[in-house]
Amino acid sequence: MSQQTIGVIGLGNMGNGMCQTLLRNGFKVYGTDLGLAQQASARALGVAVVESIAALCEQVDVILLSLPAAKHVQEVLLGEQGVLNCAQAHTLVIDTSTSEPDVTRSLAKSLAERGLALLDAPVSGGPAGAAGGTMVMLVGGVEADLVRAQPFLDALSSKVVHLGPSGNGHAAKLINNLLCAAHLVSTAEAVALGRKAGLDPAALLDGLNAGSGRSAISEVNFPRWILNEGFDSGFTMQLMRKDLRLALELIEQTGLQLPLAQLVGAQWAASEATLADQDDFNCIVKTVATGDLL
Q1: N or C terminus of the chain: which is more exposed, having fewer CB within 10 Å?
Q2: For the chain, how many structural domains are there in total?
């Protein structure tokens, strides 16, 4: 099987962006998705869209998953017509979803027992990073499998960090998203305070970004999606609230007492009353102070 061929299961915002990057880098890409609109969009890019996971497995022995949650990953891998029952020998699965570490470890074991391999490789960078090939990938799994996946990961990302065994990539991603959620709230509070103190928000952020208070949120999210009230990053409130719930579960499993994380999680959970699931995740800033932020 040519190393230049890969299958993508999940052709939504992130999957579509990754398909664009893989195609641009010369890979032959097969894809499948339950959504007709997602299929049509991928087909227009040049993806060879097939009707089922079984049909995809006939064409490739490297499969990339871009799915919303652990339950979807489980169904795609372990379902009656899933990858485990349909894959070619020695197939490698690269799961870019933000999932649950314990679920990932169990899935990796199940696949390994059948001679298949799983890397958890959740990504940061959003749809723009997926389409631009500039994502950061946090990888858990066997070193030899990472070596095999490297040509694809190099095309998709600006940086790949191997964090050890299966599940570690997903644990690191939950920690990353916990920080991202906290930075959105804390930076929004800082901007609200600055505005009340007579500071222009854009000028304040310029100053903060030149100093030690900066973060990816202040450097990217505020100028790109918040100050202009665009709120169109492509990542939803529903997905971030899900990730925070998983991060809080991870904290509980460790037995740690992390009160700031708990406060951040509570604020995001409470946002369900005022912010719809499909709202952009940057909309959390609207819950800060009086909302008089911009």
Answers
A1: N
A2: 2
Q: For the range 246-254, what are the long-range contacts, defined as Cβ-Cβ under 8 Å and sequence gap of 24 or more? A: 246/98, 246/100, 246/174, 247/174, 247/175, 247/177, 247/178, 249/100, 250/101, 250/171, 250/174, 250/175
**What is the Cα–Cα distance from 146 to 151, expressed in whole angstroms?**
9
Cα 69 to the center of its chain, rounded Å: 10
DSSP assignment, residue 88?
P
What CATH number did the domain enclosing 82 receive? 3.40.50.720
Where b means 16+ CB within 10 Å and e means fewer, 105-118 reads bbbbeebeeeebbb
Whether residue 208 contacts residue 218, with contact meaning beta carbons closer than 8 Å, is answered with yes
Rg (CA), the chain: 20
Helix (H, G, I), strand (E, B) or coil at 24: helix
Domain end point (choices 165, 192, 218) = 165
Residues 174 and 116 in one domain: no
SS3 62: strand
| 246-292 per-position pLDDT tens digit | 999 999 999 999 999 999 999 999 999 999 999 999 999 999 965 55
Residue 79 is classified by DSSP as: S
Residues annotated catalytic, as ranges: 173
Tell me: the pLDDT tens digits for 11-48? Answer: 999 999 999 999 999 999 999 999 999 999 999 999 99
